[in-house]
Amino acid sequence: MNENKTNINWFPGHMAKTKREISENLNLIDIVYEVIDARMPISSKIVDIDDLIKDKPKILVVTKYDLCDKPETDKILEKYREMCYNVVAVDLMGGNVNNLINETNKIMKDINEVRIKKGLKERAARVLIVGVPNVGKSTLINRLVGRKSAGVGNMPGFTKSLSWIRVNKDIELLDSPGILWPKLEDQEAAHVLAALSSIKEEILNADSIACFILRKLYELYPEKLKERYGIEELDEDFIEAYDIIGKKRGALSKGGVTDYEKVSNIIIKDLKNGYFGGITFDRVKC
Ligand SMILES: Nc1nc2c(ncn2[C@@H]2O[C@H](COP(=O)(O)OP(=O)(O)O)[C@@H](O)[C@H]2O)c(=O)[nH]1
Ligand SMILES: [Mg+2]
What is the Å distance from ligand 1's center to 229 Cα? Predict the structure, then answer.
C-alpha cells in the first residue's frame, strides 16, 4: 500500500468566477457566514478568505460539531476566538441554530445603528454563506429557512441574478452559497479534506485516502483503531493492517488473499459513517 506519492494539486476554474462574483456583490452583503467543519477546523478553512470578503463582519460557523472530538476542536475554536473571530458551533442534524441567529442579530443591530445615523432605514441582515464543498452550507440554509430550499449538489458560483431567501423578518440569505475550493498547497490539509470528503476521490485515489486515515487514527486515536479493527501497531507499508481488516471484514479475493481495494473502501466508509466516534483530524499549531 502506498499512502501518498502524488501531490494533490487542484484548483478548478470555477473558483475564479465565484471569487469574482463575491467581490462584485460584496456591497449588497452585511454579514458573511464562513462555514468550516468541526472535524477539520483548520484544514476546511479557506486561507485567503479575508482578501475576498475584506472587512465584512463575519461569523465562523462550525458545522458537524456532533461528529467531532469536542475537547480537541474546542482548543482550535478557542484559538480562533483569541484571534477575535466570532465563532458559533452547530449540530445541523440534531441541534438548533438559535445561537447563530442571535449572533447575527447582534452584529446587525450595530450595522443598523450606523445606518440610522447616516439617515438610512433599518433593514434585515443580508447574509452570504461561503465555504469549501461538503461543509454543510446547503444544510445550514435549509435549517435556517426551515424547509427544503437549497438545492443539493454543488453548483459552482452563486447566482446569475441575486435572489434572497427570508429566514425571518431580521435575516435574509443569498439563496445559493459561495462554493470555494481550498488551495491545497498544504498537502496535509489536502489529505484531511480528502479523508473527510471535501475533495473528490478522483483527485486522490482511495488507497491513499484510506492509508492516510489509518495513519491519522494511529497517531491521534490509537485506541479507536484497536477497538474497531484490532490493530495495535501500524506497519510501514500498511499491508499487515490491510490483511487484518480484510480478514475481519471478509474483504478477501478468491484464494483468501486480501482485496486491498475493498479494504480501502471499508476504511473510508467507516470514517464517513462515524464508526470511529467523534474525531478531529486537525490539531492546534503552536
Ligand atoms: N452529522 C452532521 N452532518 C452534517 C452536518 N451538517 C451537514 N451535514 C452533512 O454533511 C453533508 C454535506 O452537507 P451539504 O449541506 O450538502 O454541504 P455543502 O456542500 O457545503 O452544501 C450532508 O450529508 C449533510 O447531511 C452536521 O452539523 N452534522
Ligand atoms: Mg451545497
Answer: 27
**Of 146, 134, 148, 137, whose CA–CA distance to 176 is shortest?**
137
**202 exposed, middle or buried (CB, 10 Å; 0-12, 13-18, 19+)?**
exposed
Predicted confidence at residue 247, as pLDDT, reads 95
How far, in Å, is the centroid of ligand 1 from the Cα of 138?
7
**91 CB less than 6 Å from ligand 1?**
yes
What size, in residues, is the chain?
286
Whole-prediction pTM value?
A: 0.90
Average pLDDT value for the chain? 88
Residue 86 alpha carbon to ligand 2 centre in Å: 23
Q: Which residue CA neighbors atom 4 of ligand 1 most closely?
A: 64
* Alpha-carbon gap, residue 1 to 24, rounded angstroms: 47
Crossing angle of helices 260-272 and 239-249, in 10° steps, is: 80
Tell me how far apart the alpha carbons of residues 186 and 97 are, in angstroms, rounded to a whole number: 32
Which domains, from first to last, does the chain contain?
14-179 (3.40.50.300), 205-272 (1.10.1580.10)
Q: How far apart are CA 207 and CA 201, in angstroms?
A: 10
C-alpha cell at 215: 495513519
Distances in Å between the Cα of 281 and the Cα atoms of 24, 73, 125, 191, 244 are: 35, 9, 34, 10, 24
DSSP conformational letter for 26: G
